[in-house]
Every structure is written in C-alpha cells, then in structure tokens.
Amino acid sequence: MDNKRSRTVGLVAVVGCLIAAAAMFGAVFGVGGAYLLLRNQTAESGAPQPPALALIPATPVPPVASAPPATNGGSVADAVDRAGPAVVTVINHLSASNPLGGGSGTASGSGVIISQDGYVVTNNHVVDGTASLEVVFADGSKTPATLVGSDPFADIAVIKVSASVPSVAAWGDSSTLAPGDTVVAIGSPLGDFTNTVTAGIVSATGRSIEAEPGYRMEHLIQTDAAINHGNSGGPLVNLEGQIVGINTLVVRGSGMGDTAEGLGFAIESARARAVAEAIIAKGSYPRPYLGVRWEWVTPDAASQNGLPSLYGAYLSEVSSGGPAAQAGLRNGDIITGMDGQAFDENHPFLNRVLEHQPGDTVSLDVLRNGSTLQVQITLGNRPSA
To answer: Which of 2, 128, 151, 155 is an active site residue?
Structure first.
C-alpha cells in the first residue's frame, strides 16, 4: 500500500533516528516529535548509521488466547529469572542493496523466544534490509536465523533458529495492565550490553503517536523503564515474567527544543501475538491494499500548495490494475474521508484503511477538480514484499 510513500530518516540527538515527513509539491510535512527507532546499526567503520525505515503500526486485531491474568506480585528478580534466558540479541547483516549498509553494515536489536520450535519475535525494523541473520543467546552462543515473515504495519517480525533454544517466554495479557504496574524491559542496548535489565512502571496504556504523516501508532504501552537504541524487539514483561509488550520506540523530544526522558513505548502483547501467530501459520498478516502512492495533506500544507483546507491523502500515483484504478481513482485525486467520516489529525488515512480487511468494500470521499465524489472500492490483499 501503499508502502511506497516517500519518507526520510535522519539522526536525532545521540542515538536513534528521526522519522521525518514526506514532501509534496516541494513542501515538507512536519512531524510532531522526535521518535527514535531502537535499532543499533554500525557500518564497517564502526560509525553509527541511521536505519532506513519507518514504523507503521498495526490495526486492531481479534482477541487471542492468552495466559491467565498475572498477579503481578512477584519481584523483578523473579521476572528476570523467568524471561531473561529467552531474550536474545538479533544481528542483521545488511544486504548490498541497503543504502546504509552497502553490503558491509550490520544492525542489531533484541528479540524473545516464544516457542520450543525456535521461533523468535522481534521488530520488523530490526530485520529490515537483511542479507542474513544471527541470534546471540543469553549465554553468548550464536546461531544462524532465518526470516519467517514480517509486518511493517505492526512493526513485528518472526525469525527462526534451528538450534535448541535455552528457554521460552510466555505471553501475558496486556489488557490487564494499569498505570502504576511494575514492568521490566530486557534487551541489548547499543548492541553491546546484552540482556540488560531495566525496571519501571506502566506510565499509561492506549497511547497514540504520530509515527509518520498520515499514520498514528495506536494502542501503545507507555513505560518509564529505560529503553535505549538496540532494545527494539525485546520484551516488556510483568512481574510474572510474561510478555506484555514488545519494545519499539522512545520519544526524546517534541521537535521544538524540549527534551524528555522515560518515554518508552511497547506494542501491546495482544497485537504482537496475533500478528506473530499469523506469520508463523501463514507467512504474513493479512492487510488491505489500494494500489496507490499517496502523500498526507494537512491544512497548513494545503494552504501552502493552493489546495482546499482539509486533511486527506493526495494520490500521486494510482497503480494500473489495482483496486484503486479499478474503482476509477486517478492521479491527483484527494481522498478526504471514508465511510462518511472525514479524515483529521486523530483519524488519519492509513489508520482508517487498516481498520478493514482484504475484501471489504468501503466508500471514499474524493475531491477531484473542485468537485466531491463518492467512490466505492473493494480492498485487495496487500502483496508480500
């Protein structure tokens, strides 16, 4: 989908990368904060390199079976004893086609073993652009790994090792979390400090962050447990040692000069588990597909470019034969709403699309040459990358 939207990535502060906005008609669409992807990347020279990727979160998922509610009455040490041996470091040897790796770079993140069969959950952005993968177990031993599948919208990936695994972490129920609950993050910050343990509390649940123009990352767990560059893909666990989240990003500032600490975010376990289990069973998680390239329009950007003052998705390219083309959409159309609800800052285009499944028919409000049209479109199934 529409994963061809233009976007750029750059360094922020000391570590991480700033998700910058896409450009339309030469105008830059700003992002509200400095969002750091928590992957550690080094080239052959050892100099830090920014990862060429952006987070795109998941749509609400159906409920899945989960472990019994935790009492959260154990200790941090107990939680680490249970979950720690299942936490791994993921080494991504970047492909030659990766513009940052040049064939010689590596990236590292974290992951957690969820099955005796060797399945490991991590972030999509940890394994993005891979030529080959390795996993480093908690005892320091290494083994090759293969990519089973990934979902960029959820920022979840599953990899698999053939070697015997030292331990397996259990899934917990993220819906039972409440502000003030103790949680523990385990991972490999900076790629060097393997299986580092940090503890904190759940600061909030159900957080929403604009990850890129036209998309808000939703249903996130906010925690003040220290999360750093390289922690991506590692588990956030409760005091029972159960996975309640997969660590994915941290906010370091507002983009207006303000700085912050203790603003870490994790993908809730219900979402991560549903996506991971679909990947294991089918190789991918089903996502709707329109067959367009688009740019997110805000009132400011619209004013600068002589467009109507609105929120919407400007179609810069409609793929021949795709669902959008079959429905009659054209280059230059602006989609302003879906099923009678107009897009706005809190209801952006991509979030609304991902509320649906392939095969659903939706009604789009389309602005074309100053006239508003209603277009019925049946969503396709997003092709595998």
So the answer is: 155
